[in-house]
Design brief:
It is built from 26 helices and 16 strands.
Length: 988
């Protein structure tokens, strides 16, 4: 994998669009990524990781705060990387999930993560789905995100912890880097099989114990500790014997019960016959004593049957007589009511023609009907005239009220228009005052800033002078040391001479008299390097102070231009006056909408009033004409009514009088007709009733009603006579029965004693039946459980043997049981991978430690039975001892960590198909090295880049900036971080 270009926008500390050209940085094969703490060095690596995999390494992913706080909240964070992976060049653009302000209302809206992958070499279609992008990158790299974070972004702190970690902690990291899932799957498979075998044994054991408990509960015996075949068979045999004995006892009890039942049945039959004979004799005696009462009942029943057909006609005759009396009374009342009317009294005679009078009155009423309808409309005419009078009066009052309002309206409108014009002119004045006040505010702020800047300029001038003096002193010291170094150059060159090799000055292989500089050579070289660094630092401080002073001077010049010739007191007075004038003008401007509404309201009122006056005048004329017409109709109607009635009564009263005459005449006519009909019916019923009484032998209706009885009573008398006859016949038949006669001759029977004997026999039989049923049920259930018990015992032993074999194998593979090293199968595979890593890392560790150290793999078990197999120790060539990696010093730990990281990168690269990782980043760790150790590490890095790799070193150590000319400098600022490239051709 080789990186070409990286672009970040609103990502981490980078608020603005920031681009890094890795092709330019990779020209020398080694570059330094440095900057202040918190500037964003690690964020550059996070951007590379996020662009490739959609997430960042380690704990920084948990915060999920990738949007830059320096960028606007609505700015979309975006990372773009262009890289060649697996021989294919691609461009990936990603934006993380973030929250932006809502476009409407308050609060935030979550924006989902997005991404695109474009093949720059046109080797495939573009991808837009995040899972597809991640799969493509993982497939081409041949490694997962966790592997990439460990072997490409080498975090030295993590490897130092890995070096000192326990076996369990190392196992966690190695499992992320190496695919041991299939070996873990074998362990889990064996664990599952062992658990299944254990569950099977447990189920089979539980089945045996459950069936044994059922056998013991049914047989009512104690279950032994280890139930077997003999115990179960003995329980079944005992149950069968008990069932046979219970059956014999039940048979004997049933025979005794049958004898007692037969004796009780015979005794009850004899007692019943004796009771029947005594009852029959008593009923005959009772019937003989009540013979006279029965004869009287028989006579009354015959008379009641004869009177029954006459009761109905007698009731009809009585009803007809009542109807005649009622009709006569109604006729008299109708005649009285008819006589109350003047014209009715003359027609009371029986021969008067009521029908002709009714026809005459009806015709007269019909002639009055049209005039009556017109008279009925008179109240409506009067109401309409009254309503019109009210409306005409109201219209007149409204007209008198609107007239003065219309006359005063022009003056009101002129006053409102004048006020609106003044407010409109104040609007332009307010704008001018706003502009002048802003200019005064700017001048006041400039006066305040100039005072602050004067103090800062004085401080910066002093700082520049101090920095300049320090730089001159450091430069003079550096030049002095360099002069001393030149003086002692011969001794320094002599110290580098080797016997048999040519001199780099004269070329001779013989060195007869080399110069002797002693210890001053190394001291002078170290002091010169320190002096050069001190001079650089002093120059940088002087440049910073000079830049700051120039910036402050430019700011003060700008403030002087803003202030001009004005004084602070004059500006303050003018600002106060402007504030008062602006307040007055603003108040006038604020009243413009109110004044506009007032003018419009006056115009609307005037228009409404004029419209209303026109409408009132038109409607008033129409109402006056309508009222005159209605008054003429009313006067004409009154004149016509007076002419028709002669002034005696009104039309309605006369029509009501005629209607009442007709109604009473019709009532009298109908009452007379009904009286005649009722009298004729009463005469017919009287004749028929006399005929029926004579035929039945009754003297009159009174005798009929005395003999009559209700039908229910007659039926009751018949029932009494029938029951008496049936009772006599039944008693005589019972006494004539031979079996009853024989029973009467026998002695009385004691049924209570026979019942007691039967109850005792039944109790003995029930007890024997329960005992037999219980014995049979026990034997039946044991015949069911015992074969089940035998079958369960037969399958338990093979299940236990299989569980022992599977559990032993699972314990062995899982690092338990007979596994002396306490190492699981996947730990064993990881140990093999770790051994490969240590072999690859030892080569670089020997180079960086000048051949002193190399890694040693330890597969010993951990303390207190903990898992082992992943131990890391160090072999010391100086002492020949093998010791723990935790005994290394700080610088040695850095050697070991870097070697381990590089070795792990080589092994994981080989594991992923031998793909070459052209770009590697090494993050921090160089600050703990002395110059000699740093030379050795730089030699290793040179070897790495000589193979075509690009090494990016992340460090803030000053010595690294002196050793690595190609640099990517991350600068921290108040508005976000920026980057600057140094030592790259064409870039500064």
């Amino acid at each position: 994998m080789r990186l070409h270009r990286l672009r970040m926008c609103a990502f981490g500390p980078f608020a603005e669009d920031t681009e890094i050209d890795f092709d330019a940085l990779a020209a020398d094969g080694l570059f330094l990524l440095h900057g202040q703490t918190g500037a964003g060095k690690t964020s550059v690596l996070d951007a590379v990781a996020f662009a490739l995999f959609g997430r960042v390494p380690g704990a920084r992913q948990e915060g999920r705060r990738l949007h830059s706080d320096h960028a606007p909240a609505q700015q979309v964070p975006e990372v773009e990387v262009e890289a060649t992976i697996g021989g294919r060049r691609m461009r990936i653009v990603r934006s993380p999930e973030f929250h932006r302000p809502k476009k409407r209302g308050t609060g935030f809206t979550r924006e989902q993560a997005q991404g695109t992958l474009t093949w720059v070499d046109d080797s495939g279609p573009a991808l837009t789905r995040l899972p597809e992008i991640g799969e493509a990158v993982t497939r081409l790299l041949g490694m997962s995100a966790d592997q990439f974070f460990q072997v490409v972004l080498l975090p030295q702190g993590d490897f130092a912890r890995f070096l000192r970690a326990s076996s369990e902690e190392r196992e966690e990291l190695l499992e992320r880097l190496f695919d041991t899932e299939r070996f873990g799957g074998v362990e889990e498979w064996l664990k599952d099989r062992a658990r299944q075998a254990e569950r099977l044994v447990s189920d089979k054991s539980a089945a045996v114990e459950r069936i044994a408990n059922q056998i013991a509960a049914v047989a009512d015996c104690e279950m032994p500790a280890e139930p077997d075949y003999d115990w179960a068979h003995g329980c079944l045999a005992d149950a069968r014997t008990s069932a046979g004995s219970a059956h014999e006892r039940l048979t004997a009890a049933r025979a005794v019960l049958d004898g007692a039942q037969a004796a009780l049945t015979h005794g009850n039959r004899l007692a019943e016959l004796q009771r029947r004979a005594a009852g029959a004799a008593a009923r005959l005696t009772q019937l003989d004593a009540g013979a006279a009462e029965l004869d009287a009942v028989r006579t009354a029943a015959r008379a009641a049957r004869a009177a029954a057909p006459i009761v109905g006609p007698a009731d009809d005759h009585a009803a007809a007589a009542s109807a005649v009396a009622a009709a006569q009374h109604q006729t008299e009342r109708a005649a009285t009511e008819f006589a109350e009317l003047p014209e009715g009294a003359a027609l009371l005679a029986p021969d008067a023609d009521l029908d002709a009078a009714i026809d005459r009155w009806t015709g007269e009423s019909a002639r009055w009907e049209p005039l009556a309808r017109r008279v009925g409309q008179r109240p409506a005419l009067q109401a309409d005239i009254g309503r019109l009078d009210i409306e005409i009066s109201s219209a007149h009052e409204r007209s008198e009220k609107l007239t003065p309002l219309l006359e005063a309206a022009p003056a009101r409108r002129a006053a409102a228009v004048a006020a609106l014009g003044a407010a409109t002119e104040a609007k332009a004045v307010a704008q001018r005052l706003h502009t002048e006040r802003d200019r005064c505010d700017a001048m006041i702020a400039a006066f305040e800033s100039r005072a602050v800047l004067d103090t800062e300029i004085a401080t910066a001038t002093a700082e520049l002078q101090t920095a300049h003096d320090s730089y001159n002193a450091a430069r003079e010291h550096h030049l002095d040391l360099r002069e001393q170094r030149i003086v002692g150059m011969a001794g320094e060159l002599a110290a580098a001479l080797v016997d048999g090799e040519p001199c780099m000055v004269c070329g001779s292989a013989a060195h007869p008299a080399p110069a002797d500089a002693g210890e001053q050579i190394d001291v002078a070289k170290t002091a010169e390097s320190a002096a050069a660094r001190a001079e650089d630092r002093a120059a940088e401080r002087r440049n910073r102070a000079q830049t700051a002073l120039v910036a402050l001077g430019e700011r003060r010049t700008h403030l002087v231009e803003v202030i001009g010739d004005a004084s602070a007191e004059a500006v303050d007075r003018r600002s106060a006056a402007l504030a008062r004038e602006l307040a007055d003008a603003t108040a006038q401007v604020a009243s413009i909408p109110t004044l506009e509404r007032a003018v419009n309201a006056i115009d609307a009122e005037v228009e409404g009033w004029r419209t209303e006056l026109g409408r009132i005048g038109a409607s008033r004329s129409g109402r006056v004409e309508r009222r005159a017409a209605l008054q003429e109709q009313l006067e004409a109607l009154d004149a016509e009514v007076a002419h028709a009635t002669g002034g005696r009564v009104g039309v309605a009263q006369r029509r009501a009088e005629l209607a009442e005459l007709c109604r009473r005449a019709q009532g009298l006519r109908e009452a007379r007709a009904e009286t005649g009909r009722a009298q004729r019916r009463c005469d017919d019923l009287t004749e028929r009733l006399q005929k029926l009484c004579g035929e039945a032998g009754f003297a009159d209706v009174v005798a009929v009603r005395a003999a009559a009885a209700p039908l229910q009573q007659i039926d009751g008398w018949d029932e009494v006579l029938s029951r008496a006859a049936a009772a006599r016949a039944g008693a005589q038949e019972t006494l004539a029965d031979a079996e009853v006669a024989a029973a009467m001759a026998a002695a009385p029977v004691d049924t209570a004693a026979l019942t007691a004997v039967l109850a005792e026999a039944q109790q003995h039989h029930d007890t024997a039946a329960r005992e037999h049923a219980l014995a049979v049920r026990i034997a039946t259930r044991l015949e069911e459980f015992v074969p089940q018990f035998w079958a369960a015992v037969d399958v338990l032993a093979p299940a236990r043997a299989r569980h022992a074999r599977v559990q032993g194998l699972a314990d062995l593979v899982g690092g338990r049981g007979q596994n002396a090293r306490r190492m699981s199968l996947h730990s064993y595979v990881l140990a093999s991978r770790l051994e490969e890593v240590l072999v690859a890392a030892s080569a670089r560790l020997r180079q960086m430690s000048s051949g002193r150290y190399e890694f040693v793999h330890s597969d010993a078990a951990g303390p207190r039975g903990r898992r082992g197999g992943l131990g890391i120790e160090v072999h010391d060539e100086y002492t020949g001892a093998v010791r723990a990696a935790t005994t290394l010093s700080g610088g040695e730990t850095f050697f070991a960590s870097l070697a381990l990281a590089l070795g792990l990168a080589d092994v994981v690269s080989a594991e992923s198909g031998g793909r070459v990782l052209d770009t590697i980043f090494i993050d921090e760790g160089f600050g703990s090295l002395d110059p000699e150790a740093l030379d050795l590490v730089m030699g290793v890095l040179d070897d790495l880049r000589s193979g075509g790799r690009v090494i990016g070193v992340v460090s803030h150590v000053d010595e690294m900036r002196a050793r690595i000319p190609t640099q990517l400098h991350v600068l921290r600022g108040t508005s976000g971080s920026t980057v600057r490239m140094h030592g790259v051709l064409g870039v500064s």
